[in-house]
Amino acid sequence: EKKLAPAVEMRGITKLFGDFKANDGIDLVVEKGEIHALLGENGAGKSTLMNVLYGLYKPTFGEVKINGEVVDFQGPKDAIGKGLGMVHQHFMLFQPFTVVENIILGEEPTKGAVLDKKIAREKVVELSNRYGLKIDPDAKIEDISVGMQQRVEILKALYRDAEILIFDEPTAVLTPQEIDELIAIIKALAAEGKSIIIITHKLKEIKALAEKCTIIRRGQRIDTVDVANTTEADLAEMMVGRAIKFN
Length: 247
Ligand code: ADP
Ligand code: MG
Description:
Elements: E1 8-17, E2 20-30, E3 35-39, H1 46-53, E4 61-66, E5 69-71, H2 76-81, E6 84-87, H3 99-104, H4 117-130, H5 146-159, E7 164-168, H6 176-191, E8 195-199, H7 203-209, E9 212-217, E10 220-226, H8 232-240
Parallel strand pairs: 3-8, 3-9, 6-7, 7-8
Antiparallel strand pairs: 1-2, 1-4, 4-5, 9-10
The chain binds adenosine-5'-diphosphate and magnesium ion (MG).
């Protein structure tokens, strides 16, 4: 039986800003249905790598394949077209509009696109039920919590049929209870075959959630490990580059 191509295969990704190397020859392979954590200190180059994947940045060097096909994204629109979705660190939502309105905003008025609000609302409700993303579809963004606003971002990606979801430090803005709920949502997404990349520097979350973890330090990939076989102490050590002793 032929093995499926990885959902994501980034090879030798280098990204220069001037002569600063934000990414230096990074490889990242994510299988379909996998939850893959990206671990690294602030400034390590994690968001840059994901911005390359999502078509926000062009890599200076390197190759990106999606489902085995080489891609050359000119912008996020191309990435979305190939099944990518991104839940940003800072949400890009319009406060005075409702959940459903925000989800359909930005929809390209191309042939077959669903612009009818009633039909869109049904699709949003269906998606939120399927993945346990409880939300009031008619609430205004300005009236809902940050955790709910993040769900809107997730639903927005799913509404556009995202199969590969990137989460950039999604738990930084959440309460402990919201974090537990997000972990359950991400697991439900992966169980349905979605591929997940999650940026975090919280080791407990990685242990609770991810199967694989790629550690990035100063723009370079240090290692990619099976999370089940790696302790939090080992992850921390790879992240900072030296042994950490706790009393
Ligand atoms: P992380 O997400 O791991 O915290 P980033 O990928 O955001 O790190 O940033 C990596 C490095 O690249 C940082 O030193 C940051 O200042 C730099 N950098 C990121 N984006 C830009 C940019 N658009 N222009 C110049 N430097 C950038
Ligand atoms: Mg970042």
